[in-house]
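Lab manual, section 2.4: Encoding a predicted structure.

Procedure: take the sequence of the chain (135 residues), apply the prediction step described in section 2.3, and record the output as structure tokens. A sample record is shown.
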Amino acid sequence: MKKLIIVLFFMALITPVFAQENVASDLYYYNVSVEKIYPSGEGYVVQYRKGINQIGIIGIPNEWFTEAGGKAELMKLPPGRNWPTMSIFYKAGKFSHVRLYVHHKKGHRTWGGIPQGIDVSRYFKDIDSFRIEFE
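Recorded output:
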């Protein structure tokens, strides 16, 4: 009886290891430095570094930050000298989700404000995909 319990215990420990699929093998990401984040009524307009002395601009819709949308996460950085970044995740070569790591204080120089009357809708036209540019 004792041997049976020991065998069952080891089977319970080993079985989950063999049952797992290699899920992370087709998941990869790009991480870019964020220069400025502008909250708007439609979402966040993000200025990021896309190369040496080059800035890219992309919009992340508000709907993506909800549980239903689930394509974006806003992560607040801990106090310190951490600089905001944006990580774009791809699964099997297709866009999966984006994580925006922001400074926890809205008074930080990486947070900006969009002046009234400026139309930012062009950054939110294609809300089904997330096309980031490099150089």
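Check your result against the sample. The chain has a mean pLDDT of 84.
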